[in-house]
Amino acid sequence: MTFQVGRVMQAGSIKRKGDRRLPCRIRKNPIINAGCKAKIRHFDRTEKSRCKNRFGDRKKKLGKVGNILSLTAGICLLITLFCGLAAPSALAQSPENNGYVGDKPLELYSHDTVQGDLFYTIGNSYYSGKVYPGDVYSVIHNVNLPEGATVKFARLYVYWTWSAEGITGKYPEMSLSFNGESPEPEREYSDRKGWGIYDYPTGTWAYDVSAYVPGSGTFSTEIENTGSGIPYVCFDGVGLLIVYTDPNGKYMEYWIGEGADELNSQMDENGNPLYYASPNQTICEMLRPTLQFPVRSATLWTIIQSGNWEDNVLLINGNEFPGICNGKPYPDLDIDTREVKDYLKSGENSILFQAVGDYVVPSGSFLVVEKDSLTEEAQEDSQEDSQEDSQTEDVQASSEENSENPEASGIENPGDETESAPGFELVSTLAFLAGGKLAAGHRKQNTRK
């Protein structure tokens, strides 16, 4: 561009110089000629000086214009780069595997009907910050059960997060001591982002401590980071769940859901997802219980790691409950307990959790439904079992009679013209009854009783 501007200036100067009209003619009179030549030379010098000054002024102006254009181009380039970096994530290609969407529903650990109750406490849990190798995180749980109660099972939950070494995500290595015993985790639930920076796993480890909780008492938990190198892990808390029977307790049906589903639907100021996940994609299934009405009450526990954001929503059969994550008992571990009887129905129910503009990790859901008596399903199962037992006894008695008196049983001798396989009728009867037993058993939950 600078080269083209120079050519234009040169052509313009030549053109103006060619069109100039001299102020006098050259005559033969030497005196006049001398004066005229002097005037011409003076005019030429003046004109050249003016042209030179004009050219210099233009050159300076063009230099300033060029600097302004260069500066403008640089600013435009920076703006373009900034816009490219700050473009809404919705316009970019989402990762193939995004751990921030709801893809790990909680698992049903146990479902049963008992006369008793459920007890859950996090003791003096707290957010630990970074725990390095050799460091120990300690929690005390105080348990008070009714007199005469018997522990059906006890479950210890370790809620951990932000596990890494340097800036690289890494699954934790840790040893746990519960009242001096060293149980191994029965289940290890975890989830992680799966792409980009801050791809740090988080999780819930579940321990069966039934053998170490005979009843009421004080129980200590110590967790040590045993990793090699300098990895760290953070603890959101430790929960102790106890289901117990009590001859003076209430008739209840319960469901225990556990797991870890990392959700993140944080958005920018324009409402665009920052991590390729919108709120309609960050929904975790907590429980899907099937109920038989009527019921007296229904209590739901919801355990959420890293919540503390009141826009998050609990969904029960389409009914919304915002404010479930209110930072209680403390911001890194939300525990919500509420009566939900009026929002349940006979038949299958849906209990969901939705992260709305937040990073959270649903980790547990406990539902306890109180009834006037044991569930009809449990009573029917007991009646079916007793009927099947009596039918089996009748078949066995009939078999003994047939073996003692073949003629009365109608079983022909092997030498007869029509031959039947020995015991065919008995096998058929037993197979039919066994099939009925299997069909009845199929209706029961394949979970811990």
UniProtKB/TrEMBL annotation:
InterPro entries: DUF3344 (IPR021779)
Composition-biased stretches (Low complexity): 393-409
Top-level taxon of the source organism: Archaea
Keywords, sorted A to Z: Membrane, Transmembrane, Transmembrane helix
Transmembrane regions listed in the UniProt entry: 68-87
Biased composition (Acidic residues): 375-392
Chain spans, region Disordered: 374-424
Domain DUF3344: 99-370
A Pfam cross-reference name: DUF3344
Protein name, UniProt field: Cell surface glycoprotein
Organism: Methanosarcina acetivorans (strain ATCC 35395 / DSM 2834 / JCM 12185 / C2A)
